[in-house]
Amino acid sequence: MAELSGTDRKALLALARETIGRQLASGERGGEPVPPRGRRPDDPPAPAPVFLEKRGVFVTLHRGGELRGCIGYPLPVKPLWEAVREMALAAAFEDPRFPAVGSEELPELDIEISVLTVPRPVAGPMDVRVGVDGIIVSKGLHRGLLLPQVPLEQGWDLEQYISCGCRKAGLDPDEWQRGVGIETFQAVVFGEKKHAEDA
Question: CA-to-CA distance for 13 and 5, rounded, in angstroms?
Answer without folding.
Answer: 12
